[in-house]
Amino acid sequence: LARAVHILDQDTHADDTQPDKNFGECDSMNVRRDNKVTGYVDNDSVAGSLIAGVERVWEAELKVTVDSVSPPPASAPIAAHRVIGPEWAQGQGDCTGAVAPDEIPSQSEHRDVRGDNRPSFEAAPTANALVTGPGPVRWDVTGAFASPDERSSFSGFELRTGDSPGSPTDAVAFRSSEAADAATRPRLVVVHTRSERPSCVDADPELATGPSDRSHRIDAYVTDGFQRVERSSVDGCMGSPVPAAPVGWEIDHDSPDLY
Questions:
Q1: How far apart are CA 112 and CA 154, in angstroms?
Q2: Which residues are bridge partners to 4 per DSSP?
């Protein structure tokens, strides 16, 4: 098993009541009960790290730290919905939503999240968690990485509130990736297994012999290929060398070749 921790350095919230504002570099990320304000978290390297050689994701946990719940002691169910596109970026707005004129992006593949520019999300939540006050909150999001296609197309999560009583303007503030305390920044912890890497061992002990009182050196060359190739009397392995690859030897006693 391998365990990877990804800091979700792309995070922000979008506010429908301020559609032209961007909050990408604010140290908090907000979610409002009426979902006019929702949060987004992602790390562009997650998809790439889960494509090549990953056999199965056994566990994936989204962890975000609650800064405050308003008004206290209100509680709120927060759902993590898988984002399904298009690609998005957190942007460079501060906590007031202001973006410097020279930092306003042009239309591109990665567009800054604002109230009037939100990525789509899956209607059914991947996981739910109840927020009751400040501190860490966790979602089991393993289901978002079940298939290779889901892993390779991962674009983050949108955090939204579920149905619950209270004022529409009740809100939860989370710590973002800009938080001063690194331990409170959003993160995704993934536990997975990797497929066995294909390999080929090129070793031919029959090419040389030696007296029984002397050592007989056998060299093994390991590559990342998956089959041997033969050409006339010479054979070898496809692929590129694999440095420091372990090789196990099994010696069969077949007299008179081995004494």
A1: 17
A2: 190
- Would you give the distance in Å from CA 191 to the centre of its chain? 10
Distance between CA atoms of residues 169 and 161, nearest Å: 11
| Host H or E run for residue 229 | strand 228-231
- Look at residues 31, 16, 136, 22 and name the one whose alpha carbon lies nearest to residue 79: 31
**Strands 76-85, 127-131: pairing kind:** antiparallel
pLDDT digits (tens, 9 = 90+) for 141-192: 999 999 988 988 899 999 999 866 667 788 999 999 999 999 999 999 999 9
Task: State the pTM of this model.
Answer: 0.73
Do residues 54 and 151 make contact, with C-beta atoms less than 8 angstroms apart?
yes
pLDDT at 259: 47
State the DSSP string of 6-22.
Answer: EE--EEEEEETTSTT--
Q: Which two tokens stand for residue 41?
A: 């978290």
- Binning pLDDT at 50, 70 and 90, where does residue 244 land? confident
Question: Torsions phi, psi of 123, nearest 5?
Answer: -65, -40
How far is Cα 52 from Cα 134, in angstroms, rounded to an integer? Answer: 38
Each residue's pLDDT tens digit, 57-72:
999 999 999 999 988 7
Which pairing describes strands 37-42 and 127-131: parallel, antiparallel, or unpaired?
unpaired
In the numeric block, which tokens belong to residue 52? 């090549």
